[in-house]
Amino acid sequence: MDLVEEGVDVALRLGGNLPPNAIARKAAMSPRYLVAAPSYLARRGKPRIPPDLAAHEYVRFAWLASGDTLELHQGATLATVQTQGRFRVNNALAIRESLAMGAGIGLCPAWLVQDLLASGELLRVLPKWSATPQEAFLVYPSRRYQPLRARLLIDFLADRLGQLPGMQPSQPQTARTRFR
Predict the structure, then answer these.
(1) Residue 28 class from Cβ within 10 Å (0-12 exposed, 13-18 middle, 19+ buried)?
(2) How many CA atoms lie within 13 A of 113 on its CB side?
(3) CA separation (Å) from 81 to 60, 64, 84, 118, 161?
(4) pLDDT greater than 60 at residue 180
(5) For 87-97, what is the mean pLDDT?
(6) Is the pTM of this model over 0.85?
(7) Which of 39, 113, 138, 156 satisfies CB 3.0 to 4.6 Å to 102 for a cystine?
(8) d(Cα 45, Cα 161) in Å, to the nearest integer?
(9) In this structure, what DSSP letter does residue 160 have?
């Protein structure tokens, strides 16, 4: 989306490529966990180590550049697993529902599945392992001629986004980044 052309003062961007010619302020991040429904794990067994994932149905976002390759971290230890699965989903809510209905194991940001984890509808798989967190950015066209209301909204959101369920504050930021 072209922020100037669309008349957008501030946008929230979760992960992915940032728009060209925009200012981006990292506001929060969300850990990404492997999750599955208890019914799926009862049927197929619970993986004990990352390579076990290769034998499971892996439900993933269709647009991932990494494809079926999954990188997980446990502290400084990195595990790379080639996954397989019949489902490629291009909508966050659809992947959430697919996993809750027992379609397989998937990697999701905590903000997307926090309530299902709390209720027991989803369980963490390999809970000591996680993927690179999903970053949340506040994106705006320029600092020049920025309305006061936009600056105040950016400051408010930057302060509050990390406090939402499934989100964490970003590291203290000393400078904003300009992406081209």
Answers:
(1) buried
(2) 28
(3) 13, 15, 10, 27, 32
(4) no
(5) 92
(6) no
(7) 39
(8) 36
(9) H
